[in-house]
Amino acid sequence: xxxxxxxxxxxxxxxxxxxxxxxxxxxxxxxxxxxxxxxxxxxxxxxxxxxxxxxxxxxxxxxxxxxxxxxxxxxxxxxxxxxxxxxxxxxxxxxxxxxxxxxxxxxxxxxxxxxxxxxxxxxxxxxxxxxxxxxxxxxxxxxxxxxxxxxxxxxxxxxxxxxxxxxxxxxxxxxxxxxxxxxxxxxxxxxxxxxxxxxxxxxxxxxxxxxxxxxxxxx
Length: 219
Hints:
Low-confidence stretches: 86-95, 110-119
Radius of gyration: 61 Å
Helix content: 25-40%
Largest sheet: 5 strands, antiparallel
Oligomer: single chain
Strand order of the largest sheet: 6-5-4-1-7
Mean pLDDT: 73
Order of helices and strands: HHHHEEEEEEE
Number of helices: 4
């Protein structure tokens, strides 16, 4: 329906343009004839005919413009970007391809070996090949931390003491030991800053030095 309207509008606009050209040309011709008329009456009639042709030409131009505008405003069919054959291609690419089913008859005849795999001989155990006369090589013993003596002591200073990394009041402070903390007494003792320092080990395994004046035997 839209294509038919477009054809009609274009045809009417073309006819209007031709009519405007026809009446305009005739008005020009009649205008020249009006000047050649011998009498005023003939000249007056020629002028009226020229005016009528000009009016008709203008009307035809207006009609042509109207139909040209209608032709331009008429919606035109939009061609699809995808051709009719492309959806079929898309469907064929999107759909999963069917895998051929194989029957036992299609499988190649592969001879199956019924022989069992021979077990590899077990490697002899290192213990079995060891000469009884040989003795094991001595293994390296990792260095051990200072082992605490059997004696223990309890911190007693009223508020607690510092466990220091070295004997002396300038030693690095490792941990604050509260009153009542039980420590293991080690063998090392040193004198520094007019105090006797005892090497101890806490229950968490931390080794350090504490002034012996603040250690008392457990009850």
